[in-house]
Design brief:
mainly beta, globular
Length: 120
């Protein structure tokens, strides 16, 4: 899945890399310089950071050296799959859900006047 939106002077690109929904913010004037490979599961080694970082109690911690002090890329992150995505005006709402019913809403909004993008 790759979805693009234009907000102000920014191209907002959502990508699914290995089941993780990631976000790329690209200056629209440079959009053609950013190459997205054809539908590949690993995008030639690209690594996606999830839209949201979360750690559900009991799930595995991420690899590396966090020693339980980080939620970054925990086992919980891979359980959140894309449920829906819609654009209303200059806001994009993306909903991620687990099979157990946990839900994350990711809201991104921008302004044509200030060329500002705000991620909540």
């Amino acid at each position: 899945m790759t979805t693009e939106y234009e907000i102000g002077g920014t191209t907002v690109r959502y990508v699914d890399i290995g089941g993780v929904i990631g976000l790329q913010l690209i200056p629209s004037a440079l959009r053609q310089m950013v190459v997205l490979l054809p539908e590949a599961t690993d995008y030639a080694g690209m690594y996606a950071e999830s839209l949201a970082q979360v750690k559900i109690a009991g799930d595995a911690y991420s690899g590396g050296f966090g020693n339980g002090h980080t939620m970054r890329q925990s086992g919980s992150v891979r359980r959140f799959l894309l449920d829906s995505q819609e654009r209303v005006g200059d806001e994009i709402l993306t909903v991620l859900k687990t099979s157990e019913g946990h839900e994350i809403e990711h809201r991104l909004s921008g302004s044509d006047v200030r060329y500002l993008v705000c991620v909540m």
